[in-house]
Write a structure and sequence with these properties.
single chain, 432 residues, Beta Polymerase, domain 2, 52% helix, 15 helices, five-stranded mixed beta sheet, alpha+beta, two-stranded antiparallel ribbon
């Protein structure tokens, strides 16, 4: 990507909205080609186009780029309509089976985290449910025509509809198509402690206070599919929903892939609820005495504020000042804000952040081994049951190229991590 152009795009999405845009130096299509891929993967493409339209600045970017973004938005509107219908059918499938659930992310984030349901790109349906309900939920999904995806990890449990198996996108436009498959993810853990080796010490049951939501209050009724019934679903309480969004972003940061739109969602929420003192008092009370959870909230809020100009409420800021270690603030300033622009995927400096939360040396050695040189097979796109020799060869060739690229990336990123470690340790010591 063109980092300077990416910086201008992020600046365009900050709060408050800029009065003047500075895209005139990037009027040629070639200036946008590599950055468009970053824009799609960051989840910012539709939000960026909507901001340009709202400012009356569509002509600030090349005409063919604007046409492409407008086409993607039109495709995504059809995708959302299809997803609403599918989402409703999954909810009914679970409810008829007597499964207690709450929907995570996706439609549950509108309007608190984004103003428009059509501007958030999402690729799956996430549900949190009690562990003792997993078998019933799986049986209900199988009866509804869903198949379990083979995965070495047992959490979350991933399903896909038998008619729409997972596959890699055919093009960037495919990411917005109604035909691009979605998956269903069943979570029985609010926070997967075993995955990141960070015990929060947060003894709260998020399923104890579900909210009943009505999608008709989010989407204009005339734009909903003709289902003959309200599209209702259960969601987390407002406090727990924000905690989950923070933990979700933090976990992806530690795993070197957190889309910028996750931070923008949180920034949007912070800006629109900044003056709601009742909510923030309840939120701080919900965090309880968990120091690690409070620090994670502080780190993610600082990133959202630094990248997108979020307004951190005074009571939350005061709490963070008391509980947030200087080394964590230093990491945000030294590495976090810059890494966010590449979705935390161009380096392994998030290991410095991860180390701050790990006490056990054996756990840390395991994390280093897995994160520096992860040994796993690449995801494979779906193939027909009778692939030709040429298609098999082409798929094998693409996988080989992908594996070689990933090996080179991990090698170079590990070298950079090793070279940067002494500098980080010195800066960390001085911050004390």
């Amino acid at each position: 990507m063109n980092r300077r152009l990416a910086g201008e795009i992020v600046g365009c999405l900050r709060t408050p909205a800029p009065q003047n845009l500075h895209f005139e130096r990037w009027k040629a299509r070639r200036d946008w080609e590599h950055t468009l891929e970053w824009l799609d993967h960051s989840g910012l493409a539709l939000l960026f186009w909507d901001r340009l339209v709202s400012l009356g600045q569509e002509d600030a970017i090349p005409h063919e780029i604007g046409e492409r973004l407008e086409r993607n938005l039109a495709s995504h509107r059809l995708r959302v309509a299809a997803m609403v219908e599918e989402f409703d059918s999954i909810n009914w499938c679970l409810e008829k089976a007597g499964v207690k659930y709450v929907a995570l992310k996706g439609f549950a984030l509108i309007p608190e985290y984004s103003s428009d349901i059509y501007l958030r790109t999402t690729y799956d349906y996430d549900y949190l449910l009690p562990q003792d309900s997993v078998e019933r939920a799986e049986a209900a999904l199988k009866a509804g025509g869903y198949l379990r995806k083979e995965d070495p990890q047992d959490h979350p449990i991933v399903y896909f509809h038998h008619g729409c198996p997972p596959r890699t996108p055919l093009s960037r436009d495919d990411l917005y198509s109604a035909a691009f498959p979605r998956t269903v993810e069943l979570h029985y853990l609010f926070w997967d402690e075993g995955l990141v080796k960070i015990p929060l010490g947060w003894a709260v049951d998020p399923l104890a206070q579900p909210r009943l939501r009505d999608l008709g209050a989010i989407v204009r009724p005339r734009e909903l599919p003709a289902l003959g019934r309200p599209v209702r679903f259960y969601a987390l309480s407002e406090e727990d929903e924000l905690i989950f969004q923070v933990l979700h972003a933090f976990r992806h940061i530690l795993q070197n892939w957190c889309r910028l739109c996750s931070l923008l969602d949180i920034a949007y929420f912070l800006n629109h609820r900044a003056l709601d003192t009742v909510f923030w008092d309840q939120f701080l009370e919900r965090l309880g005495s968990s120091r690690l959870l409070s620090e994670i909230v502080g780190v993610v809020f600082l990133l959202a504020a630094g990248v997108f100009g979020a307004a951190i409420p005074a009571s939350v800021s005061a709490s963070s000042n008391r509980r947030l270690r200087r080394s964590l603030c230093l990491w945000v300033d030294r590495y976090g804000l810059d890494s966010a622009f590449c979705n935390f995927s161009e380096n392994k400096f998030s290991l410095f952040l991860h180390r701050e939360f790990i006490q056990d040396e054996a756990d840390w050695r395991e994390i280093l081994r897995i994160r520096l040189f992860p040994m796993q097979r690449p995801n494979q796109g779906f193939q027909s049951s009778t692939p030709t020799f040429s298609s098999r060869f082409a798929a094998s060739w693409r996988r080989g190229i992908h594996v070689a690229q990933r090996m080179l990336y991990h090698l170079m990123a590990a070298i950079r991590y090793g070279l940067e470690s002494p500098r980080w340790n010195r800066a960390r010591s001085r911050s004390r």
